Amino acid sequence: FEHPEGLKSVFLPSMVWDAEQHIFEAMRAERVTWYRCPAGHLYSIGECGGPVMETRCTHPGCNWVIGGWQHTPAKGNQRLGTYWEMQKDKTERASPGYTVVAVGRVGEDYGHHVGRAGYVMPKESVCFHRLLLHLAFVAG
User: What pTM was computed for the model?
Assistant: First the structure.
């Protein structure tokens, strides 16, 4: 790897899904519907999933109106759907490049980090693939 900047555009084994996928996976047991504000920031609405009030996006520097009235999203807000609706239309959403993932935490389960084509790699496989990848980095 003489030119590490070249890794930004390639898909590497054992790298994670995009960050949003982790959020969706973590919240899948909740009954929420996902939306994007006009600036593209995620937010969720519980219960029936239809907006019944307006507020402001809390992402630093954003302040766009989010939510809506009478189950109609505010102007510029995009409904993404529930976790299960999004799974029906799911496409591969991995990001290219090397992704640093916190390791060594007690109880860390790597299995949910790498899912491809409907299956999830066991944590032992993820760790082994990362070992090989890091050895390749060291070897150059």
Answer: 0.58
